[in-house]
Design the sequence.
C-alpha cells in the first residue's frame, strides 16, 4: 500500500530554486534514503514533507491526505521528524522521550505511555542515562534520544535528517537496525537523508540520488553505479558487491592514491 506520495514538488528561497519537480512514492514497510552532496536540497525536501517549509508547487500526501490539510494533532500522529541538530534543555532523557507520546495522550499520561517511552529507551540502549538531563549527555546519545522520541510518537512516516551523523562506527549499525526493525514491525515508512552511501545501501529499500534540486536517479541496489556517483558527486569510484549489497570504494586519483 502506498503510504507517501511526493508529486512535482518545487521550493525556492526567494529567487533561488532549491527543489524542482521532485516526485517519488513509497509504500509501507519501506526505507527511503535521499543521497547527494551538500547543498542539493536534501534537508529542504524533508522540511517540505514535514510542512516546516511550504512548497510553492506540488504536493505531499500521506495515506492519500495532503499534509497541508491536516490539523496539527492529526499531522503529529502521522509524521515524526528528527532534525540533524536540536536544542538541549534541563529535561531528563526519559521525559524527553515521553514528550513523543503527546499527540496520543488524553488529559494526562497513562501507564501505556510510560511503558512505550521505556521500551523506546531500551531499544536504543539508553537505560543507563534515562534520568540524566539531555544537556549532560554526548552528541551521539542526544541523537539517539531524539530518534527514541520519534519512535514513541508511533507515526506512519518517520523522517530523519542524517540519523547516523553524530554516531561512532559501532553505534551507526545499531541505530539503523532499530529503525529497520521499527519499519518492519509497525508497517511504517521512513525517509532519511544520508551521506554514507554504503550505510544507506545496507539498510535502504529505495535510494534517491538528488542533483541540483532534481532527482537524478532512484531505485534499489541497481541505482548505485560508478556513472551515477560520478555524475552526482563528481568523483570516480569503484562499485563492488559485498554480501549481497553494492558498496562504493573511492577510485585512485591521478597520483595513484
Sequence:
Amino acid at each position: 500500500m502506498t503510504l507517501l506520495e511526493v508529486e512535482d514538488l518545487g521550493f525556492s528561497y526567494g529567487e533561488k530554486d532549491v527543489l524542482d519537480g521532485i516526485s517519488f512514492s513509497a509504500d509501507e514497510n519501506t526505507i527511503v534514503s535521499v543521497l547527494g552532496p551538500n547543498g542539493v536540497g536534501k534537508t529542504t525536501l524533508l522540511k517540505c514533507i514535514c510542512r516546516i517549509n511550504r512548497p510553492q508547487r506540488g504536493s505531499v500526501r500521506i495515506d492519500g491526505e495532503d499534509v497541508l490539510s491536516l490539523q496539527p494533532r492529526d499531522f503529529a500522529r502521522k509524521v515524526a521528524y528528527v532534525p540533524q541538530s536540536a536544542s538541549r534543555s534541563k529535561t531528563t532523557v526519559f521525559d524527553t522521550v515521553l514528550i513523543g507520546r503527546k499527540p496520543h495522550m488524553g488529559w494526562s499520561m497513562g501507564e501505556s505511555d510510560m511503558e512505550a517511552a521505556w521500551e523506546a529507551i531500551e531499544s536504543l540502549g539508553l537505560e543507563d542515562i534515562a534520568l540524566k538531563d539531555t544537556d549532560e549527555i554526548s552528541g551521539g546519545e542526544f541523537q539517539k534520544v531524539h530518534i527514541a522520541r520519534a519512535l514513541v510518537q508511533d507515526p506512519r512516516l518517520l523522517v530523519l535528517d542524517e540519523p547516523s551523523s553524530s554516531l561512532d562506527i559501532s553505534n551507526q549499525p545499531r541505530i539503523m537496525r532499530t529503525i529497520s526493525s521499527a519499519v518492519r514491525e509497525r508497517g511504517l515508512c521512513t525517509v532519511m537523508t544520508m551521506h554514507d552511501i554504503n550505510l544507506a545501501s545496507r539498510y535502504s529499500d529505495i535510494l534517491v540520488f538528488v542533483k541540483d534540486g532534481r532527482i537524478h536517479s532512484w531505485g534499489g541496489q541497481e541505482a548505485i553505479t560508478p556513472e551515477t556517483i560520478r555524475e552526482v558527486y563528481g568523483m570516480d569510484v569503484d562499485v563492488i558487491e559485498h554480501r549481497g549489497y553494492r558498496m562504493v570504494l573511492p577510485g585512485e586519483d591521478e597520483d595513484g592514491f
User: Anything to note?
Assistant: The chain has a mean pLDDT of 92.
